[in-house]
Amino acid sequence: MRETPSSLFVGISGASGAVYAQRLVEQLASLGCELSLSISETGLAVLRHELGFIGTTRETITQAFLARAGAEQQTTVFLPDDFEAPVSSGSNFPDAAVICPCSMSTVAHIALGTTRTLLHRAGEVALKEGRPLVLVPRETPLSEIHLARMLDARRAGALIVPAAPAFYFGPQTLQDLVDHIVGKVLASLGFAQTLFAPWAAAGSEDAGDDG
Length: 211
Description:
Blueprint: E1 7-12, H1 18-30, E2 34-39, H2 41-51, H3 58-69, E3 75-78, E4 96-102, H4 104-112, H5 118-129, E5 133-137, H6 144-156, E6 159-160, H7 174-188, H8 199-202
Parallel strand pairs: 1-2, 1-4, 2-3, 4-5, 5-6
Helix pairs in contact: 1-3, 1-7, 2-3, 4-5, 4-6
């Protein structure tokens, strides 16, 4: 059985879906994981807009995000242009990496190896070192370019967990839908998630095939 990671890189790009990032960081912190966090410039703007943070500086928004997720003590924050960060090196890379949400631009840069930010570099290092890498894209509709780059990333070893919640488990609230995606990410990383009931436990005779 694969060991669960105790240290992770978490990248937040400019795709919509800041609520997924917040819940994921909250869950990883509650599991006692040591986190390295980097937020892209557009990711920062999305956090402020979608989560309603007051403030305009990077430090203010980042601290508000970590405080809401309860992850201040376990998280080291790196700027997106900090290529001297430990995660830039395979010799000091954490156990796993996840980019949530993951813009299609970020998917493409990782798939093509065209590093421009620390998020891209972390994805590149995870793949070359054979560490788990989970990408959570949130885009619709998908162009042929998007699909091709996601296929490239998957073939290189990344796990693709689209932010497309299911309904077979009987969600009642928006939080339930968020938890479904975050639970899928946790399971992809090797954790035993408890955020939503698995298909067999849901008791739905008409459930789909993504349990």
